[in-house]
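Inputs:
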Amino acid sequence: MKKPFFRRHSALAESRFLSFAAFLVAIGIFFALLRFVAPSAFLTLSTPILRVGTVLDTQTARVMSGFANAQTLTAERNALVLQNTALSQQNQTLAARVTDLTTLVGTSTPPVPGIVADVLARPPESPYDTLIIDSGQRAGVAIGDLVQVMGGIPIGSISAVSTNAARVVLFSAPQASTTAWVGTSRVPIVLEGAGGGSFTASVPRATNISIGDGVFVPGRGIQPIGHVVRLDAEPAAVTETLRIRPMVNIFSLTMVEVLPLRVP
Amino acid sequence: MTARFLAILALLAPFFFPWPYVVVLTGIALIRYPVIAFVVGLELDALYASRGTGALPLATLLGALATAVALLAHRFIRAHISVT
């Protein structure tokens, strides 16, 4: 008996559907095996693809900026140049003061040389507060090394490393906690990551912390990491929750500096 | 052909696009290939999850849930069509 066309067609389509679905499942199993059996190999394999993505992103931004209003861009550039000049002068003043104090005290801690790395992936590509950077074991990066932005503000630590890449967990990652200080009286707090680059912390209500107080973490000396933008407290609670906005915009990071824990 | 192209795009999306766009692309590819959600979830966790980002691989679990729901929906639709 002659088979109807639609039945043959559906049988063929069914086998093609299953074979592509099987291909997808095989890819998923491959990802899972690579991630758990050879995690450094997965980072190494992913790095070239992430690099292509970064280049495409940069080129797209360059093309799109050509459509921006020239007057607006010029005004913004002039304002940034003025701000940069003021900050450079302030930096020089502070550096001179540090030199004077070092001479007075008679001792100083030599700065640890850092490893500069390009950021290949950042939030919001990453759904967690993690970065992927293009420096790995070959450059001297190791698990646990501190990561900071250019300027010295710590942002996270190395959690996984391969030959040519590493993964950074930011201090703002959910379930990450970091010791810090807040305010002029340096009240000790524990910063809890709240995701999206922000933090929270709980303090007793009697500590008199105000909106705008700076938050600092240990680094080279004491490093500012953010400031308090909101205080939340239940009327009957003995503690209040600080909502902290970070100084660093993690969504636009392009370069970071890795400070090795072990000085060579 | 279009469905396969969307599925491959969803597989490559975690390398290039923010995660909300990855979710949208995966949601569209899910209509034809339910297993894509689980695979993309695995891929997101393999790329970006680490110790310190949480005890559970959230993207994998949510992907598995989306796949399960999509498979149930597919079965329901097929059963409904075969009955009618």
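Residues 70-105 of chain A form the longest helix (36 residues). Flag for discussion at group meeting.
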